[in-house]
Structure formats: C-alpha cells, structure tokens
C-alpha cells in the first residue's frame, strides 16, 4: 500500500468500531486501556485518539498524551492487512514534524530473541529516530485484576531524565498514586 497520502485526524464516530478492532487485535489485554476511555475522551483531556488514514481510509490509530515538554505515544497500531508498507514510519515522521522539536516517548516490550516481534518492534522504532532509555520501567496495571508489565521506554531524546518522566506517566496516564 502506498504511504504517500498518510494523514492523522480525529476519528469519526463511524470509524470507531474499525479502530477498536485494530486496537484489540494489536495489543494484549494487560497493555490496553479500556476502549471506552479512548473512544469517549473529553475534549479537555490530554489523551487524544487519532485515526491514521491512507488515501482517506482509516487504517490504524495512534493515541497520544501532550505533556507540553514531550508527547507520549500510548498506542500505535496499523491494520494487519496494511502492515509492512511504511505507514507506521510515515505516522512517526508526521508526529515528529507536528511536535515542534519536542521529544516523543513510548513504551515497548524489552527485546527478546525468543520473541522476534519484540526485536522487530524495537528495531522499527530505532530506525525511526527513537533511542532505548537505559533505566528500568514497569507499566502499572490499567485496571484492577491486570498485572504490571515490565517494559522499556524509548524516546527521540536519548537524554530524557527518568524520574520525572516515569512519575508523570504513572500519575497522569495510569492514575497511579505516587
């Protein structure tokens, strides 16, 4: 699929079911915010849902949090039938261009040779200007009954200080009392 006509825009009500399907297929339960929280985000929230469109059709989604000094990419997913064609890279290029030089930050599973998808994802982000931050990181549970998840943080700024970054993500994104 050609990526020359990639755009990000607010998801329409008609697209929400398709985007929910892409989201549920792409992420395991412990790495998912309840869809209702994403789809019904109030306009004054820091959380934003963007439809990824290729030639006008929604083919994926990206959820972001704008914290002023950086933008946190909570979820990025492209429909399985469209993967491998450069859409994800085009989205990250678009995101970097739209942040006026502010860093992007995201979570990834630690790369593990026994799980080739984890290595592939980390390498994808590295090719797109992200750096693995060298400190330990645990994603708090999204809701009761879900486990914590050991992840790694990546950023377009390799010098992001860990303590304020982690504290902000835990308190604002995961509502964890600090």
What shape does the CA trace take? globular
Assigned CATH architecture: 3-Layer(aba) Sandwich
What name does the CATH topology carry?
Aminopeptidase
- Measured by DSSP, the beta-strand proportion falls in 25-35%
* Overall tally of domains: 1
Q: How many strands, which pairing sense, and closed or not: the largest β-sheet?
A: 8 strands, mixed
Descriptive notes:
With 178 residues, the chain is α+β, with helices and mostly antiparallel strands. It has one domain: 3-Layer(aba) Sandwich (Aminopeptidase). It has helices at residues 16-26, 35-39, 87-97, 116-127, 162-173, and strands spanning 6-10, 47-54, 57-66, 71-78, 104-108, 131-132, 137-139, 149-155. Strands 1, 2, 3, 4, 5, 6, 7 and 8 form an 8-stranded mixed sheet that branches. Helix 3 links the parallel strand 4 and strand 5 (104-108). The protein is globular and about 40 Å long. The termini are far apart.
Summarize the structure.
This protein has helices spanning 16-26, 35-39, 87-97, 116-127, 162-173; strands spanning 6-10, 47-54, 57-66, 71-78, 104-108, 131-132, 137-139, 149-155.
Layout of helices and strands:
Elements: E1 6-10, H1 16-26, H2 35-39, E2 47-54, E3 57-66, E4 71-78, H3 87-97, E5 104-108, H4 116-127, E6 131-132, E7 137-139, E8 149-155, H5 162-173
Parallel strand pairs: 4-5
Antiparallel strand pairs: 1-2, 2-3, 3-4, 5-8, 6-8, 7-8
């Amino acid at each position: 699929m050609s990526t020359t006509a990639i755009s990000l825009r607010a998801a329409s009500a008609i697209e929400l079911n398709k985007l929910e399907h892409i989201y549920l297929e792409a992420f395991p339960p412990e790495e998912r915010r309840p869809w209702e929280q994403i789809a019904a985000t109030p306009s004054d929230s820091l959380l934003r849902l963007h439809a990824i469109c290729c030639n006008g059709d929604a083919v994926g989604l990206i959820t972001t949090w704008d914290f002023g000094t950086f933008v946190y990419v909570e979820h990025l997913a492209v429909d399985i039938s469209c993967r491998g064609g450069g859409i994800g890279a085009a989205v990250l290029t678009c995101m970097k261009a739209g942040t006026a030089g502010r860093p992007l930050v995201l979570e990834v599973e630690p790369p593990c040779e026994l799980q080739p998808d984890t290595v592939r994802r980390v390498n994808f982000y590295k090719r797109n200007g992200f750096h693995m931050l060298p400190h330990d990181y645990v994603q708090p549970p999204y809701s009761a009954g879900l486990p914590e998840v050991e992840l790694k943080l990546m950023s377009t700024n390799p010098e992001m200080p860990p303590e304020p970054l982690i504290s902000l993500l835990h308190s604002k994104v995961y509502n964890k009392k600090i």
